[in-house]
Amino acid sequence: MAxxxxxxxxxxxxxxxxxxxxxxxDPARREDEHKREGKRFTSMNIVRPAVTxxxxxxxxxxxxxxxxxxxxxxxxRYNKTES
Length: 83
What we know:
By secondary structure, the chain is α+β, with helices and mostly antiparallel strands. It has 2 helices and 3 strands, in the order ββαβα. The protein has one domain. It has helices spanning 27-36, 53-70; strands spanning 7-14, 17-24, 43-51. The longest helix has 18 residues, at 53-70. The protein is globular, with a radius of gyration of 13 Å.
């Protein structure tokens, strides 16, 4: 049986700046949650196509590592700091 490909990878941007990287199975709900939490962003960019949960989580880790390498070890504004 094929694994479900129902997870979306996304970036919140404030103009050109990435302020959050994440994954979700419901982009509209997640965007509303971010707005209710007071996060400021101008767009939510969905990376297509939908993928499995494992693939989405792997992408998120890799995207954050890539971001940190080019931003002095810091995460995007709204992603939690690595423990």
